[in-house]
Write a structure and sequence with these properties.
This protein has 6 helices and no strands.
Length: about 200
């Protein structure tokens, strides 16, 4: 009788130990996932803050104050280009059939809207269209900030990293699903359409 009780107790202890071990492993995995997600969040947040500083520098120094230092402009644009390439790791292109199939892997498919804003901003300065397009620069920068703020708010203290899911179907002027109706209206205005067409023609030359 005693031996049976001891055997039962041993089984119960064994089961309890197994349950505790499973719980500990599960909790440890969730904790590691949470830490990883928060590290991703911090990395993206740091990237965003660095990009925003560059955008403001370009806007103030070369659009508002109209500095004509081409070498300095190219230096700042190089920094922005580097940040755009880094951003592709956080906001990778979305494969869309054969679109961009001949490009390097990171450039195939459709760009995330957040990256598209930055490419558009870069092109405005690169093709020397910034001095006469202050309003558009302001709108693009604010739209970028709006999208990033929403993205970061979804991932702050989140156990699951929420991926970005807005992708361009043709170019920036074709976006019709922006959460902010004000930016959506501004970015499909005639002057933006004209500027995008101009930059696209420059890119194709």
């Amino acid at each position: 009788m005693i031996s049976e009780i001891v055997a039962i107790i041993s089984v119960v202890i064994s089961i309890a130990s197994t349950i505790v071990a499973i719980f500990a492993i599960t909790y440890s995995k969730k904790l590691k996932d949470f830490d990883l997600n928060q590290q991703n969040y911090e990395d993206v947040k740091d990237w965003y803050e660095e990009v925003l500083k560059i955008l403001k520098e370009l806007y103030l120094q070369f659009a508002v104050l109209k500095q004509d230092d081409k070498q300095k402009l190219n230096t700042v644009l190089t920094k922005l280009s580097s940040k755009i390439d880094m951003g592709r790791l956080y906001f990778p292109n979305k494969i869309d059939g054969e679109f961009g199939i001949n490009k390097p892997k990171a450039y195939r498919g459709r760009r995330a809207l957040i990256i598209d804003f930055l490419v558009f901003y870069y092109d405005i300065f690169f093709y020397d269209k910034h001095k006469e397009n202050l309003d558009i620069l302001t709108s693009v920068q604010r739209a970028f900030v709006s999208e990033m703020t929403l993205f970061l708010s979804k991932n702050q203290n989140s156990a699951v990293f929420v991926k970005y899911n807005m992708y361009d179907k043709k170019n920036i002027i074709n976006i019709s699903n922006l959460d902010n109706a004000e930016f959506r209206k501004i970015l499909i205005s005639d002057d933006v359409v004209e500027l995008v067409d101009t930059l696209n023609n420059e890119n194709n030359n």
